[in-house]
Amino acid sequence: MDDFVYLASQSPRRRQLLEQLGVRYELLLPDAAEDAEALEAVLHNEVPAAYVKRVTGLKLDAAVARRKQRQLPPAPILCSDTTVALGRIIYGKPDDARDAARMLGELAGHTHRVLTAVALQRGDQRFEALSTSRVSFDAMTADQIRAYVASGEPLGKAGAYAIQGRVAMYIAKINGSYSGIMGLPLRETALLLHAARFPI
């Protein structure tokens, strides 16, 4: 019986959320030769839900191959990816501070979706889920956006913000999964682990 999962994610928030479920994990991260960022390229006319599910599947494929290549003992492999969408526009991680300010300027004063896909591979079986939440931002002045970007928090985050950070002062309403917006929806993750007969 498996007593841990491999977590194929560099996100400290996903580690924290998995610990919240009481699931023991070992990290299964890409090495320097792997181009993990290339997997996140958006295809022409791709809609947000299809995009985030496809990217999660590609990341899981890479993690499965990585485990075999490293000759690590078998165990379930968990992977997740989050994207922010305003209509059909996909907001990934900002390239730099200027890009982060642009994203926040477009999201401010609107309600957007946060989509997090989760995939779990156990042996030859794959289990998948998608969490969709809605987040309403207050309007933000240019100075407020500048100050938030200067904090460094938006860099490396889909949509250029971290729900658990200081941007919370501008969030008027959340409808959906708070943990899903953070990057790992706990209910969906628990359901996948149960479906894979992983003890939790």
How far apart are the termini? Answer: 12 Å
Radius of gyration: 17 Å
Summarize the helix and strand pattern as letters: EHEHEEHEEHEHH
Percentage of helical residues? 25-40%
Q: Any idea of the CATH class?
A: Alpha Beta
Mean pLDDT across all residues, rounded? Answer: 95
> Number of DSSP strands?
7
Largest sheet: 7 strands, mixed
Shape-level CATH architecture: Alpha-Beta Complex
Instruction: Tell me what portion of residues adopts beta-strand conformation.
Output: 15-25%
CATH topology: Maf protein
Detail the poorly predicted runs.
Answer: none
**How many domains make up the 3D coordinates?**
1
Instruction: Specify the overall morphology.
Output: globular
Secondary structure class reads: alpha/beta
- The number of helices is 6
Short description, anyone?
By secondary structure, the protein is of the alpha/beta class. It contains six helices and seven strands. Strand 5 and strand 6 form a beta hairpin.
Any key phrases for this structure?
globular, 24% strand, single chain, Maf protein, 200 residues, alpha/beta
Written account of the structure:
The chain is an alpha/beta fold. The chain has one domain: Maf protein. The protein contains 6 helices and 7 strands, in the order E-H-E-H-E-E-H-E-E-H-E-H-H. The protein has helices spanning 12-20, 48-69, 97-107, 142-150, 178-182, 186-195, and strands at 5-7, 25-27, 77-86, 89-91, 111-122, 125-137, 171-175. Strands 1, 2, 3, 4, 5, 6 and 7 form a 7-stranded mixed β-sheet that branches. Helix 3 packs across helix 4. The longest helix is centred in the N-terminal third of the chain and has 22 residues, at 48-69. It starts with a strand and ends in a 5-residue tail after the last helix. The model has no long low-confidence stretch (mean pLDDT 95).
